[in-house]
Design brief:
The protein is an alpha+beta fold. The chain has seven helices and eight strands. Strands 1, 2, 3, 4, 5, 6, 7 and 8 form an eight-stranded antiparallel beta sheet that branches.
Length: 213
């Protein structure tokens, strides 16, 4: 049996897709207010996965990047899970160049390596917060966030991260690919719910639909 059909109706999946469109769009709009760059987004992809499939899902998603850094931020509440901002490692200098070409203020006294990490962390924080925050707003709930964490691919932390998922659990993976048009930098944003949130999410989607009927 297709696991998605055993969890969500077609109408629930359609509403979730639309909510993700709004949420990812909100995230890039918030980013454009902070740094003057244009971000293109793909149509969000939503998959229901066993948590044990997540390591393979991540590794497959990372195949088109030579090296990456992942900004991971947990969120807690009725809607509970993790947000991930996956960015090409080493492309931070392009972000610095974009800031130099824009009117966005930044501290030029910070060493280049530290500045690149700070910018990537801040962009990840903005995108994850705006995306998850909009989902929560639309579904009439609220969340709190843990501090963001940077995980570098092929590091000890990355291997530990891949082993951290309980294969007995089920998660919803909601992903969109982004591109900074000015420098042609590509990456993706991924929101993963914890399995405890799935029943709440189904109910919240039904209430969302009822409010517009």
């Amino acid at each position: 049996m297709n696991p998605e059909k055993s969890f969500f109706s077609e109408e629930q999946k359609d509403i979730l897709q639309e909510i993700m469109n709004i949420a990812f769009g909100n995230a890039t709009a918030d980013l454009s207010e902070v740094i003057d760059v244009y971000v293109e987004l793909s149509v969000p992809d939503i998959e229901l996965l066993g948590a044990g499939e997540l390591p393979g899902y991540f590794l497959k998603s990372l195949q088109s990047y030579s090296r990456t850094v992942i900004i991971n931020q947990r969120f807690l509440g009725d809607f509970k899970g993790s947000g991930f901002f996956v960015f090409p490692n080493g492309a931070g200098h392009d972000l610095v160049a974009m800031l130099e070409d824009s009117d966005t203020p930044y501290n030029k006294a910070i060493p280049a390596d530290s500045l690149e990490k700070e910018i990537i962390m801040e962009i990840g924080n903005i995108l994850i917060g705006a995306c998850v925050g909009k989902i929560s707003e639309l579904l009439n709930t609220s969340v709190v966030y843990s501090p963001p964490q940077a995980i570098y691919e092929k590091s000890v932390e990355f291997n530990r991260f891949l082993k951290s998922f309980d294969p007995a659990n089920t998660v919803i993976a909601m992903k969109t690919v982004f591109r900074f048009q000015q420098k042609d930098i590509k990456g993706f944003i991924l929101v993963i719910t914890d399995y405890e949130s799935i029943e709440w999410l189904k109910d919240a989607l039904d209430k969302f639909m009822e409010s517009y009927q």
